[in-house]
């Protein structure tokens, strides 16, 4: 009797069926693809954003506009499952005003699907639906006239994160033989997903800048972790992406006051790693542009924290080989500090001398240009503190066999402010540079350098003929002594050679 009763009970489902029931097995996880191959990670980040809807391993769930998985698969093409539930939503003009924020959230969720752009023929319909939806979102944010609700802020940050925070699609610079390549001549790598990424960036830019975005609520979702991931994107090889990032980060810095110290610290860490470890990063110029604007807004007197940033970050940024890629932006940041506090000119000049290139003439040319800008903003007291070290270096540049370096050093006398500083301290400066002037006049191979040298000699002789003649006598005496020492050395070596030869014969 008991056996008969047990036999009427429904049998227990198999382990595999149980697994499908609780994990949403293969058949219940349609893949948004109509091609013969599927890319893993096409919808990276969706599982993390939806912890209550776990996805099975090996599948790429597609999120529809309600935030749930599509209920079923209704077609197959080329052996790959394809979901037709990815459909366009009504436009904002088709719904009453009370439902627009709800529709806004649905459209944000619809745009959380990430497509494969490595195959241009893949998911054309779905890509176009997403593109049009993103454009609608941009228009809605631009024309919004009421505060965004907190859930809308959360969904907006989530959509931006899913689309932007992605793995690099191209090999990083570290995997290239950088030593054998000139980075300035390399073609920038363009992201194939840019048709969608650009609109996402445009949406995010307008969303952050919108007066309807409450900063106190939005900072919960655009938090420190979000900012760090945004900063990671600055290493993108696509210059269009870095340009958007630069503008967006600047807006975030302006809107979220509470994040400002953290943003500065995070940027500092990027610079430290670049200077002292890798010397490889694509976004240094853009980060310096942001900092240039930030430094411009520093209040006076400057905080000690900001002065340490100048000493520990900006000045050491002159060290890497790829300085030409960001020197203009770096020079602007340096000048902001000097113009705000003229006492920093001495620190900057000594820093430039510390990192002065020895064998790289193109970098030396840039250093001289930056040095002229700094000297133009330098006051006499700061100039006197560093002039001895400075003009020993300028004298070496004046004698350089690279004619552009020599010319650039001699052009310093064309600046009225610098010439006036030199004139006031000529008794110290002229003895230092006089040997270089004499060598150039007699033996430099470039005619333009010789002409500029004669002009500088004339300036000094007109200002103080007595000092000029005294330096000339001293130079001639030093030359005679040097010749005597050279002859003495030659005589000594000759005697040693004769002793060595006689011993070898014996």
TrEMBL record:
It comes from the Eukaryota. Residues 33-43 have a biased composition (Polar residues). GO terms for molecular function: protein phosphatase regulator activity. Residues 1-56 are annotated as: Disordered. GO terms for cellular component: cytoplasm; protein phosphatase type 2A complex. PANTHER family: SERINE/THREONINE PROTEIN PHOSPHATASE 2A PP2A REGULATORY SUBUNIT B, SERINE_THREONINE PROTEIN PHOSPHATASE 2A 55 KDA REGULATORY SUBUNIT B' DELTA ISOFORM. The B regulatory subunit might modulate substrate selectivity and catalytic activity, and also might direct the localization of the catalytic enzyme to a particular subcellular compartment. Belongs to the phosphatase 2A regulatory subunit B56 family. This is Serine/threonine protein phosphatase 2A regulatory subunit.
